[in-house]
Amino acid sequence: MKFNWEGVMPAVTTKFTKDDKLDLKMFQTNIKAQVDAGVHGIVLGGTLGEASTLLESEKRQLTKSTLEVVEGKIPVLMNIAEQSTKGAIYAAQQAQQDGASGLMILPPMRYKSGDRETVTYFKEVAKNTDLPIMIYNNPVDYKIEVTLDMFDEMLECKNIQAVKESTRDTTNITRIINKFGTRLKIMTGVDTIALESLLMGADGWVAGLVCAFPAETVAIYELQKAGRIKEAIEIYRWFLPLLELDINPKLVQNIKLAEVYTNIGTENVRAPRLPLFGDERKNVIQIIESSLKTRPTLPAYKNL
Q: Pfam families per the record (predicted)?
């Protein structure tokens, strides 16, 4: 059950063809770009992965397709976002059977569970799989906060090991470290405060814009880890207008459009989502094109 909760783990997008089938060729192109850039893990089937629209069979295809590319070099995590405890347990067991290395688990979807219900949900899933688990704590978008007291109860399950910290309150990182030390690993989950979170002690970054800009994302992580903070900040400042595309209701469309510009994705989304249109599209293109004109030359960040 040893798992290194550290580094950059892209929450990858799911690639579709124009006739709404999985585009596994382009999907593998993107995964290869992530691996080549030096990411430390892959997260499948998250919000960026359009999880709510995917069939069970498609999630299993994505797991197997990713495993083909990574060849055991880095862990592959599957996101669990189900409506029932029974469904979450089944999805976790399927992911384990398919060869996933770990799980990212959201609170129950649709029903706003209370604290006791939420804790019981996570613990029941943990008891029914051997895979290491990262709890996704995002009260801003999912309206359920996993508090420190709730984590205190859940950590009796040895495979609950990490939190994707998306409260958008960087002081929460210090609170977690003060209470749990290294028992609960912290993966920051908000692109626009990622560097700040890493500097405050987060172990890694579950990232979004990494889908289009893998090298820049990994460079920021590796530079700050090596203590080369000024260089990390310079890249991060360049990156911020792009990172802000992640904290937007159209984050999937935004990031997929960015992937087109970096030649590792397509704009195809699954309905009811539609590609960006009109002024909204023009604004995103302006941000992407402007950023590409000033794209920084990266240091040899892999050899730090």
A: DHDPS
Active site residue 136: yes
* Token couple for 28: 């593998």
At residue 110's C-alpha, the angle toward residues 108 and 111, to 5°, is 65
206 is in an annotated binding site: yes
Q: Which of 15, 164, 185, 250 is catalytic?
A: 164
Confidence of residue 180 (pLDDT cuts 50, 70, 90): very high
In this structure, the number of other CB atoms found within 10 A of the CB of residue 264 comes to 22
* Count of beta carbons in the 10 Å neighbourhood of residue 272: 6
Residue among 80, 83, 26 nearest 267 (CA): 26
CATH of 7-303, one of 1.10.10.10, 3.20.20.70, 3.30.390.10, 2.130.10.150: 3.20.20.70
Q: Is the pLDDT of residue 214 over 60?
A: yes
What CA–CA distance (Å, rounded) separates 92 from 157?
A: 15
Is 158 a residue of the active site?
no
**Given 15, 59, 136, 142, which residue is catalytic?**
136
